[in-house]
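Letters spell out the chain; the tokens describe the backbone. To illustrate:

===
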Amino acid sequence: MARTKPNMNVVFVGHVDAGKSTCVGRLMFDTGAVTEQEMKKLKEEAAKYGKAGFEFAYVMDKIKEERERGVTIDLAYKKIVTQKFEITIIDAPGHKDFVKNMITGASQADAAFLVIAAPAGVQPQTTEHLWLLRTMGVKNLAIAVNKMDAVEYKEDTFKKVKEEVSKLLKQVGINPDTTPFLAVAGLKGDNIAKKSDKMSWYKGPTILEQFDIFPAPALPTNLPMRMPVQDVYEITGVGTVPVGKIETGIMKVGQKIIVLPGRTGEGIQGEVKTIEMHHETYPEALAGDNVGINLRGIGKKDIARGDVICDASKPISIVEEFVAQIAVINHPTVLAKGYTPVFHIHTAQVPCQFVELIAQMDPKTGGVLKEHPDFLKNGDVAKVRIKPMGKLALETSKENPYMSRFAVRDAGSTVAAGVCLEITKKK
């Protein structure tokens, strides 16, 4: 089967209860991706759990525990075909404990909707979500001001939220004037897939139309093939099936690959046997595609989440230490030398130590403010030297920007985010 339209990964982020899952579920239903029958079943189930009004969220929240708690835990993937694209929607959790899954979601996204509830406005985590999107390289962002039905579709409430969000956008270096703001109501279906008749003052696009307004993702097919492993499944009759998004390059059936760091840190060689997307097999897949693959010569014990499947002739570096530029987002006190939090890099999670604070930078000019600062605090941008305490595959932003970004987490919150500038390879 030939590909029809380019794939675009779009992540929906926002505070817990902003109504992301409801917006996405409504979109699925209104575009026919979910049938009337399925919807009826979900409605009954929502009522059974005492969660009437959650039926659209249930489209994405497949996991029983999530239904009972009414929050999104795992990343859910869904497909929608628009005029221009095949959209893979990633519904990322907004709940505090689930930011780590959100990082994985954001790192796979070409574009993002930040969903903000009109009655609640900006929430403490809104800034964190924006920083993450920014650092994870999500260039295209739209703001969906949701639950407009709860504020009687009033234009002045929409304007007030727009002003609040615009201030935050400026803080993280995003231009609010070129950022689209959409007035929507997920539960009622206003401006999700269909134009609303309740807001004559609103002249902007629906969410469905906004997908096609986003610029097409530039596919980095010219870079070496890299596929960070999201999950590994054992499928009867097939064997070991790693799934994930091809970040860069082109993967072909028959291609010689190496899994790095792998269990040993030396990497394990294999070959691509089959490539599957949305239950169809393909001879090749490109950067941007979410795939499941079967590898010859690679067993269940050889590969895990956080490994990177690479072109065998151009493997990714395993690093001894690296220099990075970081932005401190949310540290409870100050960040000093010797600090060892967990780094989330593509799909890997590795504890790393800050071994040197090289310089504090001026975020506006990129110039040096201070050599070797004693510590860093929230809002600071700095060049730092980092030593992984485990095996880590990473590239510099010059070699491969897609494989150079990371988030730093500690005690359940995102402390910093950054990008790798230089690498000292493991001998």
Summary: The domain at 317-425 is CATH 2.40.30.10 (Elongation Factor Tu (Ef-tu); domain 3). The chain has eight helices and 26 strands. The first strand starts at residue 7 and ends at 14.
